[in-house]
Structures are given as structure tokens and as C-alpha cells.
Recover the amino acids of this structure.
């Protein structure tokens, strides 16, 4: 059984940084593609970033490109999202997700079969 747990959210001022972590159980990182999504109040869940099962393919939403970096550490069974130059529009609950195999339709929430519980990021002065 795959279990994901996200952490690292909090309150940060505009321009600040946060690093989200997602610990995974029941996942062999070389076999699973993983991603981050977010959901702001009153909005649909949207794609943020994803990394392929081999770790050599990464994609980002245009809104975070150049500010966010996705990575994973197989030795720690952990997925990361480094978020820099945060903006108020980045305020949302952030979810990590995984799916077996390589990336395809990576922006589609339905591609990911396993989800963590979410961690709240609030960007405000």
C-alpha cells in the first residue's frame, strides 16, 4: 500500500521561501512518477510540478517556473518542492501525489493514483 505524507507548509511573507517534503511508504522511487498539486479556496486542484520515475524528467506549471524546484531523494524516500520568491497567489493547500510508471498526461489529476493529505502554504505580509 502506498502512503504519502506532506509537510513543511506554513506562513511566509511575499518573497520568502519554503521547502515542502513528502515522505513515501510502499513506493520504489525508480518505479513511480511523483508530483505536486495545489488547491486554493474556491478553486480546482491544479498542477504545480512533476518528476518522472527515473528522475531525469521534470515539468512545471508556467506560474511557478523559475521559482519552484522539484526533486526527490530515493535514499530518504522523500519528494521535495523548494519554493522561492513566493507570492500571495501561491497560497493554497499543497498535495503530493504518485503514480506507477513514467509520466504521461502529467497535468491531469486523474493520472495520479495516490495522494498525501496536503499541507497549507500561506503567503501574506
Amino acid at each position: 500500500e502506498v502512503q504519502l505524507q506532506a509537510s513543511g507548509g506554513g506562513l511566509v511573507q511575499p518573497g520568502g521561501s519554503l521547502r515542502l517534503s513528502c515522505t513515501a511508504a510502499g513506493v520504489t522511487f525508480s518505479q513511480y512518477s511523483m508530483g505536486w498539486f495545489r488547491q486554493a479556496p474556491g478553486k480546482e486542484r491544479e498542477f504545480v510540478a512533476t518528476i518522472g520515475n527515473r528522475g531525469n524528467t521534470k515539468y512545471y506549471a508556467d506560474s511557478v517556473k523559475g521559482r519552484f524546484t522539484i526533486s526527490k531523494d530515493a535514499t530518504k524516500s522523500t519528494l521535495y518542492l523548494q519554493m522561492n520568491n513566493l507570492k500571495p497567489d501561491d497560497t493554497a493547500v499543497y498535495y503530493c501525489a504518485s503514480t506507477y510508471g513514467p509520466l504521461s498526461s502529467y497535468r491531469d489529476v486523474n493520472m495520479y493514483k495516490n495522494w498525501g493529505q496536503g499541507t497549507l502554504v500561506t503567503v501574506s505580509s
Observations:
- The chain has a mean pLDDT of 95.
- Residues 3 and 39 are 20 Å apart (CA to CA).
- The first strand starts at residue 3 and ends at 7.
- The two ends are 40 Å apart (CA to CA).
